[in-house]
């Protein structure tokens, strides 16, 4: 922050006088350390929401994902000390909000907390297999949003239902709305198929 301030001092003086120049590194650290993280998170989410609304209004797709921060690996524990769950506005390439967890397994509890901060009304919320939970899906619906969740073997009954009704043979014969891509990556050819299928909630539950 100090280096940024030094490089942009003239521009920053449009907002403050900075009679004594940019605060020192130590002063900035003391100031930032006094900020209450949860309150700052709420303010940040609200600021991002208002900034996007000034552009053209509505967020259509929100991707929620967890990532471990580089440089926080603990060699003794053999784990990363800082893991963040973030909400990303796809259309704008901007982070809407973040919640910190200590371990990747805690994403299940962190995602609902992050959702509480967000306005997902009218948006599609995408989450990987970690967030494929009935309570999370219901929370998105309660907040007037839609969801797109990943189903894998960790969801036993749900995965079994999908394999019964949407196996490769069935999907290859499907004549409804569908889209496929094929690309070469990591030494192999990957083909992804997406089909829009009408489902009842009774089948999913």
TrEMBL record:
<dbReference type="InterPro" id="IPR032806">
    <property type="entry name" value="YbfD_N"/>
</dbReference>
<protein>
    <submittedName>
        <fullName>ISAs1 family transposase</fullName>
    </submittedName>
</protein>
<dbReference type="InterPro" id="IPR002559">
    <property type="entry name" value="Transposase_11"/>
</dbReference>
<feature type="domain" description="Transposase IS4-like">
    <location>
        <begin position="59"/>
        <end position="188"/>
    </location>
</feature>
<dbReference type="InterPro" id="IPR051698">
    <property type="entry name" value="Transposase_11-like"/>
</dbReference>
<dbReference type="Pfam" id="PF13808">
    <property type="entry name" value="DDE_Tnp_1_assoc"/>
</dbReference>
<dbReference type="InterPro" id="IPR047647">
    <property type="entry name" value="ISAs1_transpos"/>
</dbReference>
<feature type="domain" description="H repeat-associated protein N-terminal">
    <location>
        <begin position="1"/>
        <end position="48"/>
    </location>
</feature>
<dbReference type="Pfam" id="PF01609">
    <property type="entry name" value="DDE_Tnp_1"/>
</dbReference>
């Amino acid at each position: 922050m100090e280096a940024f301030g030094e490089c942009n001092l003239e521009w920053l003086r449009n907002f403050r006088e900075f009679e004594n120049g940019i605060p020192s590194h130590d002063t900035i650290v003391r100031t930032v350390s006094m900020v209450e993280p949860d309150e700052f998170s709420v303010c940040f989410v609200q600021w991002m929401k208002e900034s996007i609304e000034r552009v053209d209004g509505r967020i259509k797709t929100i991707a929620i994902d967890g990532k471990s921060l580089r440089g926080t690996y603990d060699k003794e524990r053999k784990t990363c000390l800082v893991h963040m769950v973030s909400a990303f506005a796809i259309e704008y390439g901007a982070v809407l909000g973040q919640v910190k967890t200590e371990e990747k397994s805690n994403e299940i509890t962190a995602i609902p907390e992050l959702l509480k901060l967000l306005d997902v009304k009218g948006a599609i919320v995408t989450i990987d297999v970690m967030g494929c939970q009935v309570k999370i899906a219901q929370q998105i619906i309660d907040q007037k949003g839609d969801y797109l969740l990943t189903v894998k073997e960790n969801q036993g009954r749900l995965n079994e239902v999908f394999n019964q009704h949407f196996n490769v043979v069935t999907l290859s014969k499907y004549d409804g709305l569908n889209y496929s891509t094929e690309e070469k990556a990591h030494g192999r050819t990957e083909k992804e198929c997406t089909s829009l299928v009408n489902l009842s909630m009774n089948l999913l539950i």
